Amino acid sequence: MIRQFFVLCSGADRALLHSCGEGEQNKYAGIGATVFFTALMAFIASAYALYTVFDSVYLAIPFGLVWGLLIFNLDRFIVSTIRKRDRFGKELLQASPRILLAVIIAVVISKPLELKIFEKEINQVLLEEKNRMTLDNQQQIALQYTPAIEQKKAEIAGLREEIRRKEAATDTLYETYIAEAEGRKGTLLLGKGPVYAEKREKHDASLAELQALREENTRRISQIEAEIEALETGYAGAVETSQPVIDGFDGLMARIDALGKLPWFPSFFIFLLFMAIETAPILVKLMTPKGPYDFKLEDEETAVASWVAQKVHQREQLLETDRLLNKKVYGEIAEEQAVYAHKKEKAEALMRLQADRFYDLQVKQL
């Protein structure tokens, strides 16, 4: 039962193969098994590849099944259409397009499985890529917000510096009138005289200005800090909004690109394995000598070709014979006087009728 199924997969003529020995049947069952398991691997590989694209099992399995059946049909067609010739070079030339197609199919099948086999390593590469993209994204967004934030921080520093300078000036005036009262500077007279009162008045005026400046600058600083907070909130929102795009950077193309950054030898080895599996049926048919099935198939095909060629040749001969006979018959008829005289009489009668009809028409017009 299983052997019959694999024979069906090989594309061989089962009735013709059944008349051959066990060895020949086993050979084609092996070829059919290779075709079947290649299609099975194609189904698994394509289903996984489509799952990474659609992220849905319900979509991946039907499309993977269609792809597996397509590969099965192609392989079965390739194997079943290769015919054994008398020379290996001729056979290889016939099979070369099919071998090229098999190599392409092997690439298509092996790549998704490589993605699954090296999934952990690919995830590590993708994680590094995501981290780098996150940092780059933050830096790019920061270019939009940082200049404005720095400018506002500089405004705050300027306002605070203005308060500090005013405080320093007020402290200097305070020290001046205290030194005047103590007689250490100014008039060097101990006590609170007119000069002391004048300096004290200047200090009190400066202190009032300092208080007003503090209130005004504190209000402006609070306003600017609120603007800075709004900019920082906008920056954080922009980073948060763009982060899901980076987190979703694990599609099929991204994984293939990450696979290309891994060492090439393991991937190349897997590709060679699948290429060997895919080209195995073709290579087996090329390397094995002609078997009983090949001779019987060639006999059946050449018999049909010969029969068709014979029928075409017979039709051509029949046409040529009929042409010669017609030529001879009509040639002999052309030489008979009775036929000539009868046809001449009828032609003369027809000409008389035409002349009379022409005469009648002329008379009517006159």
Automatic annotation (TrEMBL):
It comes from the Bacteria. Residues 196-234 form a coiled coil. Keywords: Coiled coil, Membrane, Transmembrane, Transmembrane helix. It holds the Pfam family DUF4407. The chain crosses the membrane at residues 28-51, 57-74, 264-284. InterPro entries: DUF4407. This is DUF4407 domain-containing protein. It comes from Robiginitalea marina.
